[in-house]
Amino acid sequence: MTKKRLLNGSAVVAVAGILLIGGGAMAEPEVELMHMWTSGESANALADIANRFREQGGTWRDNAIAGHTATQYAALRARVIAGDAPTAVQLKGPNIQEWVEAIGLANLDPIAEAGNWRDVIAPALIDIMSYDGHLVAVPINIERVNWMFSSPKALAAIGETEPPKTWAEFNAMAERMDAVGIIPVAHGGQDWQDITIFENVVLGQGLDFYKKSFIELDDETLRGPKMIATFDQLRKMVNWMDEGMPGRDWGETSALVAKGEAGFQLTGDWFVGNMGQLGYVPGTDYVCSALPTTDGSSAFSLNPNSFAFFEQDDPDRQAGQKLLAELIMDPEVQARFNKVKGSLPARMDVDLSDFGYCQQLAMEHLEQSIEADALVPSLAHSIAQPQRIRSSVMEIVSNFMNTNMSSKDAANQVADAVQANI
Q1: CA distance 226 to 58
Q2: Would you tell me which of 131, 141, 179, 269 could form a disulfide with 100, CB atoms 3.0–4.6 Å apart?
Q3: Residue range 339-344: average pLDDT?
Q4: Which residues are within 8 A (CB) of 145 and not within 5 positions of it... i.e. 6 or more apart?
């Protein structure tokens, strides 16, 4: 699809129907939402939106696809090929633009202008949600990927009170935890968890290094000594993971930290929401902090979630799309959703005074990263690069973590895969 078709073709005609329904019979809002939030705090947070949709007279059909983004997108492609696209879908990063170009997404400018969205959406999200200057997706939150969660009990067991701030400190504490029978690194052996911890180690090696590697896709950097050293650090961490790791769910893994059975988990802020659902308390059962770094940078790895809409002829589905878009951007909905989810609202005008400590710290770090030009899109969660690059890197990282592959071979394979998919 060309930009001309997006702007002048059927997709824009549909926008008038979706967003500006008026006259004639009253439509009964109906929506089918395809997403990947199947359990835990994510499913509970989304359930609140579904309940509000029903309270306003809508019919909600939930289509949750277990797995991660690649799994959901495969299911989405199958539906689109069959001529049965869902009315709404969770889309992220470059995949938003790819779907605009493939079959078209609704231009949301009319409802965005009515709701003054551009005045309240976090500025860093506008380009991600747009195509050719038009908003085509609705953001629900800002997730931070580069968190380190530490167990106060595990730290106390080795005579420490504060999380490590450097990789040297991290490695030394991990060795001491290992010596007293504590799992130093909590990790679930699923491919998306593998690439998440890899991204965090890459970013911990330096902000400029991350940018050169996975934003600019610089071949020399991807093959270079610093990437090899990154895999060396990851290998140390793999050796500190427990035998129960393969296939373990991330939420079950997080509980090991809260119980003091494991020391550290390097993952995103969904950890916070999950801990809240399980009754664990920040500061008591876990501590959230920035990752160790080699350069002292205040980097923030950005992972916003959003929803987009495919053209529909049925007035009820058009009304459902309008209602859902409005609900997602409602300040109260954003507040309730993100308190449960553990993330930050996509709207910058939501009061965070009654949010948890980790979320308030995340906002502080977000503001610092913006000021320092240290806000970066997440590779692991499909924001920095198209899905084909993310998937190819993820496969290599998982192979590295589950075999005796050398760090040099891993770096070269990552570079080769990136070059093949540019």
Answers
A1: 53
A2: 131
A3: 96
A4: 196, 199, 200, 267, 268, 301, 302, 303, 378, 380, 381
